[in-house]
Amino acid sequence: MAFVTEKHLDDSQYTYKLSPSIKKYTLMDTTFIKNKLGNYELTRILENVPNSGDGPLLKIIVKSDLSGFKLSITDKSGLKNMNIFKSADNKMIQEKFYFQMNALVDCGVFVKA
User: Fold this and answer.
1) Alpha carbon distance 84, 63 (integer Å)
2) Do residues 56 and 46 make contact, with C-beta atoms less than 8 angstroms apart?
3) Is 1:70 a contact under the CB 8 Å cutoff?
4) 19: nearest Cα among 30, 10, 11
């Protein structure tokens, strides 16, 4: 998957764009980790049951020069993309996704449209 400047997940309510005021220190403050390629990476498990360790994986990678990002929700192995918005059974997982993304919007990492 290539780096993009805006991303809309299938059936999601919002489109996310990198904030024009994004800073590298903001990524570090919001628990992004610099990977071996120099990109900033955030991985979170979206659990139905807290502390179960079972649920889809939210993965965000921001390019090292802050010009693009990747956003995906996959199965626990990280190999198969999932659509958590398709089924009403995933309401808790959807809420956790929106909570995480809203926190990143509030910190100035993303802008939602």
Assistant:
1) 25
2) yes
3) yes
4) 30
Residue 14 · residue 8 · CB < 8 Å: yes
Q: What is the pLDDT of residues 19-43, one digit of tens each?
A: 999 999 999 999 999 999 999 999 9
Distance CA(105)–CA(60), nearest Å, equals 13
Q: What integer is the mean pLDDT of 51-59?
A: 89
How long a stretch of residues is the chain?
A: 113
Domain extents for the chain? 6-112
Question: 14 pairs with which residues across the strands?
Answer: none
Domain 6-112, CATH: 3.30.1820.10
Task: Tell me if 42 sits within 8 A of 60, measured CB to CB.
Answer: yes
Decide: helix, strand or coil at residue 98. helix
* Least confidently predicted of 25-39, 42-56, 92-106: 42-56
